[in-house]
Amino acid sequence: MAAADTATPREEDQHTLFEDAQGLLFGTIMCAFALIPLRTLGLITGQIAGFAVLVSYVTGWSFGAIFFVANLPFYWFGYKRLGKKFMLKTFASVAMVSVFAEWFPTLASFERLNPVLGAVIFGFATGAGLLAIFRHGASLGGIGIIGLYIQDATGFKAGYVQLIFDACLFVAAFFLLPLPMVLYSLLGALVVNLVIAINHRRDRYIAM
């Protein structure tokens, strides 16, 4: 999942601690809930979340544990590039998604779910969750942070780093999952990225 937009807000526009807490709670709940239809259908997504889902399918290991551990190496880069506050909020967000993603399937399930609808539900719910997380000064870690770090060091665009990672992830999925599931997964990833691209704009919104 993508890294947050790092536009600096005006002092009077900054969120309070309570506003940050409810925003991150909303965002992580939405992202974790979105994983229910995704995993029910056997689909994947991009970034570290997609990597964790794919590994969980292949190994049977817990998605939450894989997602949490896979993000650990990236916090140092997040601290260096975006600061302590961003890193702590991101760590908390990743931890909440890791816990919620394992808990929520015990509370809700889908007995019948069309894969197109499931992919779209995943995309919209994840997009809404990520918007909230980004606007409260955090991300869900991973490749987006590395992308920003590489961009600072070399000038190579962060978006290209994320695109290359996702391309490799989906190529691997073609060898591990049925072709229709990969295509539905691409639909879900497209919806997520459209929601973010259309709604997360510095010229319209202040990114906290």
Automatic annotation (TrEMBL):
Membrane-spanning ranges: 24-42, 48-74, 86-104, 116-134, 181-198
InterPro entries assigned to the protein according to its UniProt record, in alphabetical order: UPF0750_membrane, YitT
Presence of keyword Iron: no
Keywords: Cell membrane, Membrane, Transmembrane, Transmembrane helix
Major localization class: membrane
GO CC annotations on file: plasma membrane
Protein origin, superkingdom: Bacteria
Record's bilayer topology term: Multi-pass membrane protein
Subcellular location per the Swiss-Prot or TrEMBL entry: Cell membrane
Name listed for the protein in its UniProt record: Putative 5xTM membrane YitT family protein
Organism listed in the record: Celeribacter persicus
